[in-house]
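This is your field. Have a critical look at the following sequence-structure pair:

***
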Amino acid sequence: MSKTSSTAWQCNYTNEIDGVKSATTLSQTILDILLSKNKLAYARVDDSLRVVETSCNFQAFFHRAEPLEGTLLPKLCEALIGSESVLREVMQGSLPEYLLEYVNDESGAEARFLTFHVWKNWGDEGGLFLLVEDVSPAARLEQRAVQARNELELLRRELDRANAELHRMALFDALTGLPNRRYLDEQLTRYVETARRTGTPFSLIMLDIDEFKAVNDLYGHLEGDDALRILASVLRTSIRNSDFVARYAGDEFCICLPMTESHQAHALAARIQRNLAEITRPANLRLTISLGIFSVSGQSPQAYTPQALLARADAALYRAKREGKNRICLEEAP
């Protein structure tokens, strides 16, 4: 080797050594900072799973004042109890690492969120190397994020419940629990469109309580409200699942009967009268109703609007009133 080559080799070797020393110094500085800030702590464990060497801040991670050398690693904290077999697998090289997350709140101080990394110590001493990392800031941030998500979910559910209640209030009558006029208008439009499209019959019943003002005057408005609830209950239990009943206004109710011809609608009206009489007879409550029916057959021209159907059924109801009340009047489309 020439003198020039030897000098160059020595310079390269010296630079490499200086680089290693510089990297080592930097690593030591970083480790010292992490240890001083209590972000990390470490310990060496022998083959019997006893702690034999620790960093100066190791006991602080477990809120202990006394040195922890000589302590069995599984007894260091509750989270490690019963982990002996796994630790020995790491020591034997069967597992590359044992990772454990642990919340240390044993002494009543502020809880610390710790992550344990346990590796096999490949040095001459054997045993294990334990690195404890304080991840409390990130864990608390995650906790707050989870709490915020939970609170948002609760708010969303509460909003859904409030919206459902607003929807119910908008479409249902508070006194009787039946659909209201607004809901009736929506459904009647759909029923009429379906009858037109399919050419099926459709019937509409309008009814009200006879002499309802007299009921209020005789028994009081609270009893009048009870009468409306009783009638609503009778209507609800008398109709089919495919039918639709709503409180139209005051003591007036409306029943939509899809795919129902006039004689079927008349039979339902008579059944409602009987059911009402049966339920009010034990209470000695004289409560009768008049009903008006308007039916459109599947073969008749489908030129009737929802408003026209309501007007014709209402006209039949008032005819029943004029003819003596407590009766059923029927009109059919020509």
The mean pLDDT is 84.
